[in-house]
Amino acid sequence: MSIVKINALTVPEEQRAPLEERFASRAGAVEGSDGFEWFELLRPLEGTDRYLVYTRWRSEEDFQAWMEGPMKQAHQRGGQDSGDGERPRPAATGSETWSFEVVQQAAPQK
Question: What is the distance between the alpha carbons of residues 63 and 69, in angstroms, rounded to a whole number?
Answer without folding.
Answer: 10
